Amino acid sequence: MMQQYRSNSYLFGGNAPYVEEMYEAYLDNPGSVPDNWRAYFDALQHVPATDGGEGRDVPHAPVIESFAQRAKANAFAAKASSADLAVAHKQVHVQSLIAAYRFLGNRWAELDPLKRAERPKIPELDPAFYDLTESDMDISFSASNTYFGGETMSLRQIVQALRETYCSSVGSEFMHCTDPGEKRWWQERLEKARGKPTFSAEEKRHILDRLTAAEGLERYLHTKYVGQKRFSLEGGESFIAAMDELIQRAGQRGVQEIVIGMAHRGRLNVLVNTLGKMPADLFAEFEHKAAEDLPAGDVKYHQGFSSDVSTKGGPVHLSLSFNPSHLEIVNPVVEGSVRARQERRGDKDGSQVLPVLVHGDAAFGGQGVVQETLCMAQTRGYGTGGTVHIVINNQIGFTTSDPRDLRSTTYCSDVVKMIEAPVLHVNGDDPEAVVWAMQLAMDYRAEFRKDVVLDIVCYRKLGHNEQDTPSLTQPLMYKKIAAHPGTRKVYADKLAAQNVVDAAGADEMVKAYRAAMDEGRHTVDPVLTNFKSKYATDWSPFLGKKWTDSCDTALPVSEWKRLADKLTTLPKDLVAHNLVQKLYADRAAMGRGEINVDWGMGESMAFASLVASGYPIRLSGEDAGRGTFTHRHAVIHDQNRSNWDEGAYVPLQHVAEGQAPFVVIDSILSEEAVLGFEYGYAAAEPNTLTIWEAQFGDFANGAQVVIDQFIASGEVKWGRANGLVMMLPHGYEGQGPEHSSARLERFMQLAADNNMQIVQPTTASQIFHVLRRQMLRMFRKPLVIMTPKSLLRAKDATSPLAEFTKGEFRTVIGEQDASISADKVKRVIVCSGKVYYDLVRKREEKKASDVAIIRVEQLYPFPHKAFAAEIKKYPGATELVWCQDEPQNQGAWFFVQHYVHENMLDGQKLGYAGRPASASPACGYAHLHQEQQKSLLDQAFGKLKGFILTK
Predict the structure, then answer these.
(1) What is the reported pTM?
(2) Domain Transketolase-like pyrimidine-binding, which positions (predicted)?
(3) Sheet of strand 353-360: strand arrangement
C-alpha cells in the first residue's frame, strides 16, 4: 500500500506539483505557507543546490524525496502529539489525506437525488491508502493547515470533518485554481461550515415558499394547458430558490443590474417566479390571446422580459435575454449586453452589473460556443468581472441520452477548468445546500471577479417537452423518478421534523400559490412597477421611424481638415514603423486635399468625425487594430517598446477635446462568440457604432447561428432593433475557396421586412458616408458591408476631397465616363463590387462605347427609385446584363434579378455574366481563376445566352 501511495498520492508521483506549488510559495514568501510547512522547508535549506546558490535555487527533486524520507521532529513536533519520527511520517500522510479530499472529495459527495450511482472506488480517500490504520484514529495530528477549528485534532475527527465538508450535498472543485489565495478562500469557507449551512427558521420558510412557487406553477400549467410545450422545471425546483438568493445577495453587494441568459428548461418559471411576469400574461400566451404586433413573433419559451425588484441593498433591474432554440448561443450575447451596461455606468470592475448564464448539462459540455465565451472571460475587450453559471443538470441531457454518450469528461462543467473557474456541484434535493452554494458562488465572484459555476444535480420529471416518453429509453431512471415525492415535499417534511413549519402550514402555501395563479397575480414580492434607472437604455428615439436611404453625411471642409490634421499628427517621441510613417504622411496629404483619399483614410475620417460628434465607436475582430490587409493601422506600435500597453498609440483617441471613446480590439480567434458578444453590446447601446470585422468574409460561416437567429430575425421575432455593423472582406482575387466569398447570397436570402442593410461600397467616399449614415439616421438596422481587399489600395477606388465634403452615400452609382453617350447605349451592364473596375478596363480594351455600366452599391433594401432613374437614361438599350464575380448559384444574381426585371423598360432583355454554378465559392488554382475571370468579362460584352428574362 505504501508503494502505491508513493506512486499516486498528491505529494508524490504524477502529483508532485502539489508539493512543488507549496514550496514555490514558500520560496516567494515564507509567511504565505502554514507554520508547520515553513518549519519543514526551513530544514530543507540544508539540501545543497546544484549551482551553489541558496533559497530558490534548491532543486525540487531532492526536496520531494527529502519530504518523504527526512520528516524530522523539528518540522512537526510543535504541532504533533509525539516527537517520534514515525508519527512525523504519519503527519505527512495525514497532510496527503487532507489534500486528497480537497481534490477528490467531490467524487464521493451525495449529489444525485435519485441515488442511482454507486460510490466510485477512490483509494486516495481511504486512510489505509496512506498506511493509516484504526490504531491511528485517536492519535492527535496537526490540523493547522485546515479551517476545522483546532490546531490539533484526532485522525478520526479530521476524517469526519473532511467527509462532512467535501462529501456531503455539496461537492466542490477548486484545487485546479493556481492562485493560492483562491484555494485558501475556498478551504476556509467550506471547512469552517463543514458542509452544513445555517439558516434561521424564517429563511427556511422562505426557501420552502420558493420551492412551492416553482412546483406550483408547473403543476398549474400541466393541468390547465395539457399537452402544450413548456419545458418544465419539475425535478429542478431548487433552481428558483437559487435564483432568489442570487438576486438578494447581489443587491446587498451593490449590484444594480442582472442580465440573465438561459435556454428553455425552467424559463417560464423564471419569468413568473423570478422576474415577476404577470401569470395572466403568460396564460394569455398559452391561450393565443396575446397581442400579435410583430411580423413573425416567437414561441413563449424564447421570450425575454425585464423588471425591477426590491432587495435589502436597493432596487435591482433584471433582464432575461431573448433566446432562440440554439441553446448556449445566448451566452456571448448576454456578455456583450453586460459589457455595454457596465461601460455606460463606468462600472470598471463589474460590481454593478452581473451576468448570469443558465445551462443544461448536455449543452454546457457539448456546445462549442461555451468554450469560446469562456475564452473571452478574462480578456481586456470582453471581460465582465465574472459570470455566475448555473447548470440545471437533469442527468439526461437533451432528450434521453445514455450518460456514457453525453460527454468524455467526468462532469458536464469540466470545460470551465480552462479558465480555472471553481465549481460547486450540489444535490438539488437539498435546497438549503443549493442556496448556501449560491451564497458561496456570489461571494467568490465579488471577491475575485471571476467566473464561478453552480451545478445543480437534479432530475427531469417529464419528457423533454412534455410530449415525449422518456421511459422508452430510460426505464430504470424513470421508475426512480415516478417514485420520487418531489423536492418540495422532501423539504417540507424535513422542516416539519424540525418544527419549522407543520404540514398544514406547508399545504397552505400550496393553496395560496394556486389562488394567486387563479387570479393571475404577481408571485414575486415586491416588483417595482414605477422604478426607472437613469442608466436604462432609451431606444424610443429610434423606434417607429420610416425607412429612408437618404441622409446628409457630408463633412464641411474646415472640419475635415481640422480632424485630418489631428488624426495624422503623431507624438514626436513615437517611433512608428517606416511603413506606418509613410502611410500617415500620405494620409496627411489626403487630409489637405493634395491627393485623393484612399479607403483606409476614408474609413478613419468617418470614425474621427463620429467620435468628435459624441458617438462612441467599438471595433473588434481578428487583427482589427491594423486590419487584416494592413490598411487600417488604427493602433500604432512604438518600434522601440515591446510592451503592448506602453508602446501603443491610437490616433482616433486624440482627435478632439471631450470626444467620445474609440475602442479597437484584436479579438480572440473566434467568430461565433465574438459576433454574438458584439450583437449583445449593440443591443444595449444604440448610440455606439459597434462593428465586427471578419478576418476574411468567409469566416462569418463560423458565426452563422448569430447571423440567422439574432441579426437577421431579432427584430421580427422579438421587436428588438440593433445597429450592429459587420465588415466582411469579399472579393475574387484568386485566393481560393476560403478567402474569396463572404457568402453574399446567404445575406440576400435572409433579407426581408427591411430587416437589414446589405451594401458593397466601391470607393473611399462610399465607406465614409455609409458609416456616418449608420449613426446619423434616427433608426437602427444591422448593416452588412461587403468590404474589398484589392480595392483598399487601388488608385481607381480613391476619392477626391469634394466627395467627402458634399453628397451622401449613393445606393446606385451610374455611368461615370462622360464620353459614353446615353442615346447610343445599346447594352447596360449592372454589377456590384470590385468587378466594376474589371468591366471598365474591359470596355476600354474593346472600345465598347455603346455599353453603360451601373453599380448597385446597396443590394438591400434594393434602391428601386435610384436604379429606375439610371435605367431610364438609356431608352435605346435593348439588353441588360447582370455581371458578378461569384458563381451563378451564389452572389446576388438570384435575388436581384427580380428587382432588376421590375425596373427594366419594355422590350428589354436581361442576361447573366459570371462564373458558372459551383459547389465551391471559388476555385483554388490561380490559372483557372484567371480563365474564369476573362470568361465572365467576355460574357458581359458578348452575345446574351443561357437564362434570359424579357420585360
Answers:
(1) 0.89
(2) 597-794
(3) 170-173, 423-427, 452-457, 388-393, 353-360, 257-262, 314-320, 305-311
- Measured distance CA(412)–CA(397) in Å, rounded: 10
Domains and CATH numbers, the chain: 2-162 (no CATH), 201-519 (3.40.50.970), 557-805 (3.40.50.12470), 814-950 (3.40.50.11610)
The Cα–Cα gap between 542 and 883 comes to 37
For residues 397-414, average pLDDT: 79
pLDDT digits (tens, 9 = 90+) for 276-289: 999 888 888 877 77
DSSP-based three-state secondary structure for 605: helix
Residues 6+ apart with CB under 8 A from 138: 154, 155, 156
| Cα separation, 111 vs 429, whole angstroms | 9
Cis peptide before 800 (omega within 30 of 0): no
Cα separation, 777 vs 285, whole angstroms: 35
Quick: pLDDT tens for 728-760. Answer: 999 999 999 999 999 999 999 999 999 999 999
Q: Where are the alpha helices (DSSP H) in 470-556?
A: 475-483, 487-497, 503-519
Residue written as cell 508521483?
A: 13
Q: How many residues does the chain have?
A: 951
Tell me which residue of 907, 923, 895, 840 sits closest to 871, measured CA to CA. 907
**28 alpha-carbon distance from chain centroid:** 37
Burial (0-12, 13-18, 19+ Cβ within 10 Å), 429: buried
**Dihedral (Cα; 248, 253, 255, 260), 10-degree rounding:** -50
Give the separation between CA 188 and CA 81, rounded to whole angstroms.
24
What is the C-alpha to C-alpha distance for residues 740 and 426, in angstroms, rounded to an integer? 50
